[in-house]
């Protein structure tokens, strides 16, 4: 018996006709299932939202306290018009989920964004068995291979300690939702105080509200005493780089934490002293391993290196193809820098 596809892509997003719901729609719809709270996946204007409970406070912060939002735990099942829907850990950021849909003997999983490396700020990625897997490919080329985060954070803390001894404050820029909290969670509070740019502070407080455990931090304001700033670690979004806001940090050493620091020239272009290769997305090996563990035969590639990655999957025997979506993956981080102070106080 021939089934219509359980999910299809139309001009609003990833659509499930049987349940009449969308996954991470980019235009306003009636019912939106949200994988995680990043702006390219969780947009304003939907009539109803379903998300993981650890996304609640941050989604209300970004989209408005009054959005019509229902939340679920990982593994909890919701049935809409016969379609069984459940959320499973994606390991991307706090509250991020892969969404599993089952109907008429078909199982589809939409990954949203994911990473396979364990990280203190989120429930570890769990492979979900399915017939069709919709995957991202933000870093879907063999040149992307991440070092263990423990090594990266050991380097970052050593650099902060040495800056402090030399009388500098240390500014590390990372996306204000996800990357920033990972930096905070792994910073060594014995070295000195951890201060947050307003945009990072607001998101961090929302995530604490949803249960995220982090070392103590303070919001950096115009009243923060100079002697507290000197030698401190300051966490800010990339958009704060080279803006007047940075004056109060002088003398300062600067760094950017991003998967894109892997590319030669990216660090130099962004005029920072250090680049730490740290991504909230799976690297080449992580993507391949995750896809293998789903057991899926059909793979749809939504964003990143879609053409190259889907060709590679075809060569490995998968029924793979790229689909056009409006998700940006970690490119959002680069745009945030280039557009200047989009998230400044």
From TrEMBL:
Single Gene Ontology MF annotation: RNA endonuclease activity
InterPro entries given in the database record: MBL (IPR050698), RibonucZ/Hydroxyglut_hydro (IPR036866), Xnuc_lig_assoc (IPR026360)
Domain of life, source organism: Bacteria
Organism in which the protein naturally occurs: Cesiribacter andamanensis AMV16
Gene3D superfamilies per UniProt: Ribonuclease Z/Hydroxyacylglutathione hydrolase-like (3.60.15.10)
Name of this chain's protein: F0F1-type ATP synthase, epsilon subunit
């Amino acid at each position: 018996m021939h089934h219509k596809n359980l999910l299809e892509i139309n001009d609003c997003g990833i659509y499930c006709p049987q349940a009449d719901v969308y996954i991470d729609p980019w235009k306003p719809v009636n019912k939106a299932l949200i994988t995680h709270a990043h702006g390219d996946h969780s947009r304003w204007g939907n009539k109803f939202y379903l998300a993981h409970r650890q996304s609640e406070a941050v989604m209300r912060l970004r989209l408005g306290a009054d959005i019509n939002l229902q939340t679920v735990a990982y593994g909890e099942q919701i049935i809409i018009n016969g379609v069984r829907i459940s959320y499973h850990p994606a390991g991307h950021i706090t509250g991020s989920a892969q969404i599993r849909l089952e109907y008429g003997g078909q199982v589809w999983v939409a990954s949203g964004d994911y990473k396979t490396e364990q990280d203190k700020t989120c429930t570890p990625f769990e492979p979900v068995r399915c017939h069709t897997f919709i995957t991202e490919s933000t870093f879907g080329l063999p040149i992307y291979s991440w070092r263990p985060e423990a090594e990266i954070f050991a380097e970052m803390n050593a650099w902060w300690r040495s800056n402090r001894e030399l009388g500098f404050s240390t500014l590390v820029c990372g996306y204000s939702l996800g990357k920033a909290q990972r930096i905070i969670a792994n910073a060594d509070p014995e070295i000195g105080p951890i201060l947050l740019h307003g945009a990072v502070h607001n998101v961090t407080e929302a995530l604490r509200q949803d249960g995220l455990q982090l070392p103590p931090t303070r919001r950096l304001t115009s009243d923060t005493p100079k002697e507290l700033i000197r030698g401190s670690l300051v966490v800010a979004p990339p958009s704060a780089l080279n803006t007047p806001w940075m004056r109060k940090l002088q003398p300062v050493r600067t760094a950017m934490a991003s998967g894109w620091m892997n590319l030669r020239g990216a660090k130099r272009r962004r005029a920072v002293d250090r680049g730490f290769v740290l991504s909230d997305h799976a690297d080449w090996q992580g993507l391949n391993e995750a896809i293998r563990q789903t057991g899926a035969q059909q793979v749809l590639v939504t964003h990143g290196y879609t053409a190259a990655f889907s060709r590679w999957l075809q060569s490995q025997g998968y029924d793979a193809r790229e689909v056009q979506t409006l998700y940006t993956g970690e490119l959002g981080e680069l745009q945030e820098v280039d557009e200047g102070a989009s998230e400044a106080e």
